[in-house]
Amino acid sequence: QGLSAVTAALGAGFEVSADLITAVPGQDAERDLHALGATGAPHVSVYTLTIEPHTPFALRGVRTDEAREAEDFALAEAILARYGLARYEVSSHARPGHESRHNAVYWSGAHFLNLGPSAAGFLPLEGGPGTETETGAERVGALGVRVVNPPIKAWLAGAPPERFLVTPAAYALDLLSTGLRTRRGVDLAALEARSGIALEGRYGALLDELTGEGWLERSAGALRATPAGLLQLNGVLRRFFAATPDPHYRPLE
Question: What are the backbone dihedrals phi and psi of residue 45, each rounded to the nearest 5 degrees, phi first?
Answer without folding.
Answer: -110, 135
